[in-house]
Amino acid sequence: MEDRGGSLLDLEFELGMRFFMTKTPGVGGRLRFKLEDFVVEEVTPEGEVLQRGVNWGIREGEGDYCIFIVERCGTYDTFEMIRKMARALRVSRKRFSYAGVKDKRAIVVQRVSAWRVDPETIMSLRTRGIVVRGAWCSAEEVKLGDLWGNFFRVNVREIRLPVSRTEERITRVIEELRAEGGMPNFYGHQRFGITRPVTHMVGLKLLKGEFREAAMEFLSRIYPEESEEAKEARRYLAETMDFKGALKRFPNHLVYERAMLNHLMKLPNDFVGAFRKLPRGLILMFVHAAQSYIFNLILSERKKFDLPLNRVNAGDFAVTLRNGLPESVILVDEGNVDRVNYLIEWGRAALALPIVGYDTTLPSGSLQEEIVRRVLSELEIRLDSFKVKSMPELAARGNFRQALVNPPTLKLLRVSKDREVGGVMASLYFSLPKGSYATCLMREIMKTDPTKY
Fold first, then answer.
1. What are phi and psi of 184, to 5 degrees?
2. CATH number of the domain residue 205 falls in
3. 235 is in which domain, residue-wise?
């Protein structure tokens, strides 16, 4: 891989996000000065936006599942929210399911389902930061991926440019993105964590079968943005490997670390068992984060090779699109390359890059195969690493993902002086299909320190 360049911020480089699609300078600024500055509203498969503040009440329905619409205000991530609700209802968290994991530092509206919990009980729930807006019975649960995407309402504050210059830059970035076919469909910062961007590093070690090292990466790696209490606890564990003593020192809010430490205190060499004390979705997230990191590297390498992102060549893969969502994968060859590029031009297809897994196959001798093998070689990962033989429940078959996403409904609403915090504020809204990250769009507009996203 290339040496670290000075033009990209270190954190983004470490996460594989090594280029910008647009050349216009960013406006800087900061997201999420207040929770109201970042609103995420789930879009159902039918295209309905679950708007903030709307009360649906109890609807009619039949079945063993209660589907409910929940609005939460930045207190919890999706896993923590479900854990809190399960505890308040005195039921297992395994009864709950959701369509997608959302931002923690935001106001979020999303659908969740719970097995054999009645709507009246759900509607009467009172938990800080969580409001249930509607509930009904259904024969089907909400499954992961059961959404079109998300609608975002975003304010960028603390911009230190004149109003006219801010408006001009944002408008030019939007025009550039449309001309180039969209934004790079990187996996965004929150996929890996900004305070502790450790999930992909844990995942890479799990893929290599280095379970002790993976556990210690998660438990003891220190990052500067953490509290001093957390840093000291992690430092103690790294220096002593005293799991019992570390458990006494780890803050109560680090519930996942404490669950692993509690297991290791009893069985100090059972690192696989310690990981299995975590929610299955969280363990899978480690492997998925490793796949995401590899995807980001592949996308950046393709750009470095000066290969197009808004067109395909023979030996590439493409994905057809229906209502903006991937439908089927096509292997591009000399016989269909013109047809596929025609579909891309009309927004009905896109270049697809591999989310590498044990079942990934690429045309022998293609540039795409060369890029993938180069990335995997430097990470010392093989395709069969994704079978995770000691934890087969983490096996990852692989898939494909669009290289670019063209955000529908992207609009700059207004730019004005910010009388609340000073400087200039820009307000935008846009929708993104499931799996795409708002921060990856906003980094093109802001081009600033990733901690400001």
1. -60, 130
2. 1.10.1510.30
3. 199-278
d(CA 274, CA 271): 5
* Residue 38 φ then ψ, to 5°: -140, 100
| pLDDT tens track for 245-275 | 999 999 999 999 999 999 999 999 999 999 9
Confidence of residue 9 (pLDDT cuts 50, 70, 90): low
296 and 238: one domain? no
Count of domains for the chain: 4
Q: What is the pLDDT of residue 336?
A: 97
User: Hey, how many other C-beta atoms are within 10 angstroms of the C-beta on 232?
Assistant: 15
Tell me how far apart the terminal alpha carbons of the chain are, to the nearest angstrom. 26
pLDDT tens-place string over residues 87-146: 999 999 999 999 998 888 899 999 999 999 999 999 999 888 999 999 999 999 999 999
Spatial separation of the C-alpha atoms in residues 264 and 419, rounded to whole Å: 52
**Tens digits of per-residue pLDDT, 273-297?**
999 999 888 899 999 999 999 999 9
CA distances from 334 to 80, 248, 315, 345 (A): 50, 64, 9, 18
- Written in H, E and C, the secondary structure of 55-107 is CCEECCCCCCEEEEEEEEECCCCHHHHHHHHHHHHCCCHHHEEECCCCCCCCE
> What does pLDDT average to over the chain?
94
Q: SS3 breakdown of the chain: % helix, strand, coil, rounded to 5?
A: 40, 20, 40
> Which own/partner contact pairs does 120-128 have at CB distance under 8 Å and 24+ positions apart?
120/58, 121/89, 122/66, 122/68, 122/89, 123/57, 123/58, 123/68, 125/85, 125/88, 125/89, 126/88, 127/84, 127/85, 127/88, 128/75
Residue 300 covered by a domain: yes
Token pair for residue 170? 């944002």
CA atoms within 13 A on the CB side of 330: 25
Number of H helices, E strands in the chain: 14, 15
Rounded Cα gap, residues 287 and 440, in angstroms: 21
SS3 427: strand
Res 2 pLDDT > 70 = no
Catalytic residue ranges: 103
